[in-house]
Amino acid sequence: MGLYLRGKIYWYSIMHDGKRIQESAGTEKRKVAERIYARALSDIHEGKWFQSEAKRRTFEELRDRYMADYAIPNKAPRTVEKDKCSFKRLSEFFGECTLAEITAQNIARYKKHRREAGIKPATLARELELLRASLNVAIREWEWLEVNPFWKVKIEQPKGHKERWLTINEERDLLEASPQWLREIILLALNTGMRQNEILSLKWHQVDLLRRSVTLIETKNREKRTVPLNQAITRLLRAKSKVRHISGYVFPSGAGTKIHARNLLRAFYVVRGKAGLDNVRFHDLRHTFATRLVQAGIELHVVKELMGHKSLKMTLRYAHHYPESLRHGVDVLDSIRDASATDCYNFATVAEKRGYA
Predict the structure, then answer these.
(1) Global confidence as pTM
(2) Tell me, what CATH number does 172's domain have?
(3) Is residue 161 part of a domain?
(4) Which of 39, 80, 228, 252 has an alpha carbon 20 to 30 Å from 157's alpha carbon atom?
(5) Residue range 177-216, pLDDT digits in tens
(6) Catalytic (active site) residue 318
(7) Active site residue 283
(8) Which residue is catalytic, options 56, 65, 89, 286?
(9) Rounded to an integer, what distance in angstroms lies between the CA atom of residue 280 and that of residue 201?
């Protein structure tokens, strides 16, 4: 009886009325598991054990199991770190609340508490979405809850960042202000739509210059995908391939390691200031790639695959850049009218010849 490890997760075993109760504590942390075990013993002693799961399970159990069973195995490392940060803030408020105590009213109090702390709307929305998602998993997979309190709660979405893309002249100014190493990274982003981490994580074994493609492994969606290269980027990579660092990174730091995202952005902010483009983010290079494709009349499903979007909904944000792609939808009305007019004319001519008119 007591606590024991099964794999990396703590379980507990308790004898009650001649029956053995075995349950997962849902955590890898012994101290958390000890608290859960002690609560289970107390509940059994007080006759509360057979209350609903929502009254027995705590927020800490929800947090730890969600991270261990769902976030870490399924999400990108950067997203996992963001989840840890969001859960830290949520823990400060909900602490050892049971799931039954995470009500719509308490969530509303949390929103008020975070707003008074001066948090950005986007950060608050991310924290609430994580809590909602973890509760949904607790309902769907663990049967700890029956109803998610978020059905009564609205998550106010922040006003989106104004979509920004570079003109050809702005691209020229940005490149001219950049040192060689940064210029190459910017060119790759503009010509492939690759995300920042995809570029910084890129190694030579992923590059196929013969087939003019790059195979991405560390993607946001955790799905491997192949990105075709245009002639400009093929020339750039072919020239770089003549001198490769032993680390294997296509864009290594001065020490040969992977360039840290903060160092990249720090350099990018300096360069954009010199170019007079203070409102341009590095991610806008990806927006520029997609916008230019749509403006050139490339079909949205092709843009979707090139961008690595999981659904067309994400790609549809760019549809307004090329209204001509929708024109065939209304041009068909002219065809219908033309055909109808021709049919009427033909019928009238035949009727007149046959003496019906």
Answers:
(1) 0.61
(2) 1.10.443.10
(3) no
(4) 80
(5) 999 999 999 999 999 999 999 999 999 999 999 999 999 8
(6) yes
(7) yes
(8) 286
(9) 23
